[in-house]
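Hi support team,

I've been running sequence recovery on a batch of backbones for a student project. Most finish fine, but this one hangs at about 90% for roughly twenty minutes before it completes. I'm not sure whether the input is malformed or the queue is just slow. I've pasted the structure tokens below so you can try to reproduce it. Let me know if you need the job ID as well.

Thanks,
M.K.
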């Protein structure tokens, strides 16, 4: 079997991504292009992603982003051997734009179509940077839309959810706390920056779902967000100046503490020795620092893709597409629907 070029299309949230990878005969996957257009600026004044705006932005960005990816790689559309696309989970209207585009490219080029799982894509992308994953590993996905602990037993074989958030996603908590503090959207980067000058022990914010009777591997950030809002309200009522850096550092410490403690505990209990952290929040400086420290202490290998690959992109979908093709998966039917609630166990829509 010769090398195959796999095109990946991502449109589940506010990033339009087109990626190209080369799948070699030995199953290795190489990144050739990663073009992304984001509509994040258009959502900023609403403090969160507005689905209708995202869908429209995908429509406008799809063809230019495709052109950019082809230019970056020096390839032509006719070089593409397979098309992979995010089938779900994600925003319905946003997913539909990518799925429709992928179907059009696949049928025009007469190549197979693979509708793949966005969450698995966040894990698969790490193979572009750090090579093949071990047979079993744990993944922590943390972004504006997801907070999940996944047991990965072969990236193209089996993914099982071990834990998830029962309310807000980790990134969502950052975005909401930023709003309370009058910091810009998305809230992760400004809070991360402010926290550097603050004391993480200044305020004892709650650690969600860490009581003895709480589910061990699920997360909750809504109580923490409310605690921050109450603390700020009280300080304002008392006429005190808000110590923004201390609030940010203390909030961030709670998030990083809970995420890393649960991830390391799950790795120990499931007897896996590799943890992959991906998603926009993986860029957080305190999270990566604490994860590195706790993984080192527990003898766990930590893998974090570079920030550009952690956030939503087309390369992660192309990478997952390449892995499922290498594993011999059947293509998806051309009438495949977008599925906003696609379960994490479904790696390819059949
Ligand atoms: O993966 P992503 O780009 O999009 C999805 O939500 O799928 O993640 C965006 C999220 C936002 O909530 C943003 O506030 C958060 O990632 N984020 C961060 C940092 N950079 C981005 N959160 C904490 N610290 C950061 N440095
Ligand atoms: Zn994502």
């Amino acid at each position: 079997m010769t090398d195959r070029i796999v095109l990946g299309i991502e449109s589940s949230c506010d990033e339009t991504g087109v990626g190209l990878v080369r799948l070699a005969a030995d199953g290795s996957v190489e990144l050739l292009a990663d073009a992304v257009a984001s509509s994040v600026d258009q959502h900023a004044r609403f403090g969160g992603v507005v689905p209708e705006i995202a869908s429209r932005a995908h429509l406008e960005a799809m063809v230019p982003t495709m052109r950019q990816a082809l230019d970056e790689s020096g390839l032509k559309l006719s070089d593409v051997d397979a098309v992979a696309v995010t089938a779900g989970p994600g925003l319905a209207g946003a997913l539909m734009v990518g799925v429709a585009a992928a179907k059009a490219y696949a049928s025009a080029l007469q190549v197979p179509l693979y509708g793949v799982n966005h969450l698995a894509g966040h894990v698969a992308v790490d193979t572009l940077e750090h090579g093949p994953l071990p047979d079993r590993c744990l993944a922590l996905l943390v972004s504006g839309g997801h907070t999940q602990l996944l047991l990965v037993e072969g990236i193209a074989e089996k993914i099982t959810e071990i834990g998830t958030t029962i309310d807000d996603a980790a990134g969502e908590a950052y975005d909401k706390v930023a709003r309370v503090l009058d910091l810009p959207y998305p809230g992760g980067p400004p809070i991360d920056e402010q926290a550097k000058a603050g004391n993480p022990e200044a305020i004892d914010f709650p650690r969600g779902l860490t009581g003895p009777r709480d589910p061990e591997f699920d997360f909750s950030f809504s109580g923490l967000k409310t605690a921050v809002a109450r603390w700020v309200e009280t300080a304002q009522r008392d006429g005190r100046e808000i110590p923004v850096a201390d609030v940010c550092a203390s909030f961030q410490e709670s998030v990083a503490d809970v995420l890393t403690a649960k991830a390391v505990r799950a790795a120990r209990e499931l007897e896996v020795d590799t943890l992959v952290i991906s998603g926009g929040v993986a860029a957080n400086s305190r999270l990566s620092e604490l994860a590195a420290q706790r993984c080192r202490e527990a003898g766990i290998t930590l893998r974090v893709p570079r920030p550009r690959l952690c956030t939503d992109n087309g390369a992660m979908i192309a990478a997952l597409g390449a892995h499922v093709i290498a594993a011999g998966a059947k293509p998806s039917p051309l009438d495949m629907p977008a599925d906003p609630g696609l379960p994490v166990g479904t790696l390819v829509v059949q």
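--
Follow-up from support: It reproduced on our side and the slowdown came from queue contention, not your input. Residues 183 and 215 are 32 Å apart (CA to CA). No action needed from you.
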